[in-house]
Write a structure and sequence with these properties.
The structure is a homodimer. Chain A is an alpha/beta fold and about 375 residues long. The first copy, chain A, has helices at about 45-60, 70-80, 95-105, 120-135, 150-155, 160-180, 195-210, 235-250, 265-285, 310-325, 340-345, 375-385; strands spanning about 10, 20, 30, 60-70, 90-95, 110-115, 140-145, 185-190, 225-230, 260, 295-300, 330-335, 350-355, 355-360, 365-370. The two termini of chain A are about 35 Å apart.
């Protein structure tokens, strides 16, 4: 059962497209820009390249794109970029609430603040007031590594569980937001530990649901959509493993409206990881409101001594393109003719080797045999013709 | 609760080191050689390079290394290699039982056969007879894509679930093995679907446990150790995601004595993925007999616009070395000084940037500040000195 949460619209003004989070909408995948973005990066060819990359991320399934905004200069640059692209951009702000205020002057679709370091309630209210007037949602982003000092102390003294402190920090902020009548709010509670990540989200989801009068209604206190993710998850393999286990457990329990897979790797790989998690979880825990499984599914064998086709090279070459296709198909890249077509008989399109030839097959039946040098072209034609 | 299974020794003769699978021993990670191996690959410098790579895989945590053996020539080459290294090697044989017989003439530690294609019970018995005389364990490796024809038909006609057919195929073979008094047997049932993989293993684990007289005893019918894995799991990210979810669910339920993460990627990455899964699962499902968490844990941030240190480059450069260290430590690679040392305060050693300097820290306290060009050297020294 997917937990009910309030539906929020993010974007949907100027040239920015609307994205819906919560309220049973499909889970939204997001990622974060990895480098500092200055004005110089947005001019001429450089600016076109940035916009093109964002366009490609969107095609791969990225619904929201976040940027660290460490100072006012970065806010001005992000403001400029936000007017150049249709994907809703999010400003991530720590320490200085005035940067948040400046971001709200631009078509930036959402703000993220960290209650552990943004300062007094008065500063938070200044941001809320302007965001409300502009209709911009805010995410309360709590991190286990930067809890408010009093909660940090309790955790360090062993008087409070880390997961409970995360939920407590988020709830405190929610109280302020509600006193102010600000309802366009999302919450995240991230830890580097898998168990803490799962537990913090479960605690808050239960509390908020109880406050809203049970899972059946949204009543006066709408349940805020939850942004879920594991922080400092590590390099690619460690990060994907840890995120799959943590987000898998939460999504399987109906918790999570938008996800980010944090990796010490590219944004594109974060988006692909998000897709793969959203595709895989319903296989083991189908639940109402699960995001529809969309996009190309790639079936590929690990390759062994029987292979006569370079599956790794082909997969690497074709991955970005396959992940950008808006088609619900399965594509198989198999190493050998002996097992390939049979084991991939459910694939809409497949490719494998047989001696010095390359076979292209559909549902296990070979439809074309070509030389290795024609393989990419032939595969492209058959993909096009599906 | 980790399911009890019979303990098997693999290797432990000639120069081959023993590895123990099942019976509560730590879960063994395995991978598979990705290319055909011929005699030319084993001579002179080429042979030294192959042996060195196998040595590195072992250092990273690989306990068993499998090779496809499609013909007698490949069997002869593998036999030669098996005498060159200490890691137990496994011969993977389809279709022709005579190849299995030939492999048993060499110090090859284990044989894998696929009951779906190895042929009559008489052929299986010929292999069992020789393996028994030599004291070599055998894995019954069932694949959803290559079920025995009658079971395949039942599945295709919708008369039998795929998971049940996998367990049935394994059990049929187990009956033959037992009639023959052959007990050094492991079982795997692999499917490309996560749900089928989980279900097939649960069905067999339950049946075998019941046959052995409940989970408390091993009685006359020892429960065979289970080798678990998802087949055709896909390229790196998809494969790690699917394997983490499937193996995670099984391991959390106490099922699984040896694992392989199949990836359309390198063997090294398969081993790293295995390690990361074995490290992460106990965080959410601690159980008696869980493998000890060993080796370096890498904490690294995804990097954002606040960064002043190339975490990706550093991580990529250091990964193979860190994954080869036999130390139980946490190493943090963080992007910025603002959050880095604080968020990684639990790390034994960490590195991050601050303006144009690089900081090295221990438990959140900076112990050294160097220029970027000295970063690797300084980090190596501190790592050495831990």
């Amino acid at each position: 059962m997917r937990r009910k949460s309030a539906a929020l619209q993010i974007g949907g003004f100027d040239q920015v497209e609307p994205v819906y989070v919560g309220g049973g909408h499909p889970v939204v995948i997001q990622t974060m820009w990895k480098d500092r973005l200055g004005f110089a990066d947005l001019e001429g060819k450089a600016g076109e390249a940035v916009a093109a990359r964002i366009g490609r991320l969107k095609k791969m399934g990225c619904g929201l794109l976040r940027f660290a905004v460490p100072d006012t200069e970065a806010a001005e640059a992000l403001g400029k970029l936000a007017a150049m692209v249709s994907l809703p951009l999010v400003a991530d702000i720590h320490f200085d609430y005035r940067i948040a205020l400046r971001c709200l002057d631009f078509p930036i679709a959402k703000i993220r603040i960290n209650p552990g370091n943004i300062g007094s309630a008065g500063k938070v209210e200044a941001v809320l007031s302007k965001a409300k007037a502009k209709g911009r949602p805010i995410r309360i982003g709590v991190n286990a590594g930067s809890l408010p000092p009093d909660l940090r102390r309790l955790v360090d003294q062993g008087k409070m569980e880390s997961a409970r402190a995360l939920a407590e920090a988020a709830e405190r902020e929610l109280v302020i937001f509600r006193q102010f009548g600000f309802s366009a709010v999302l919450v995240s509670m991230k830890a580097s530990g898998i168990a803490d990540t799962i537990k913090a989200n479960r605690i808050l989801a239960e509390r908020e649901e109880a406050a809203a009068g049970g899972s059946s209604g949204l009543a006066e206190n709408p349940v805020p959509p939850l942004h879920i993710g594991v922080t400092e998850a590590g390099p690619l393999i460690a990060g994907v493993t840890r995120s799959a286990l943590a987000l898998g457990a939460l999504l399987a329990g109906g918790i999570g409206d938008t996800i980010r897979v944090s990796l010490s790797d590219t944004m594109e790989n974060e988006v692909i990881a998000g897709r793969e998690i959203l595709r895989a979880v319903p296989e083991i825990a189908p639940f109402p409101g699960a995001p529809p499984v969309r996009g190309v599914r790639i079936v590929s064998c690990p390759r062994c001594g029987r292979h006569s086709f370079d599956t790794h090279g082909f997969t690497e070459r074709w991955l970005p393109r396959l992940y950008s296709l808006d088609r619900d198909i399965a594509v198989a890249v198999m190493g050998c003719a002996v097992n390939g077509p049979g084991e991939a008989r459910h694939a809409d399109l497949g490719i494998t080797g047989a001696g010095d030839r390359v076979l292209i097959f559909r549902y296990g039946k070979v439809i074309r045999t070509v030389g290795p040098e024609e393989a990419d072209k032939a595969f492209a034609e058959e993909l096009e013709g599906l």
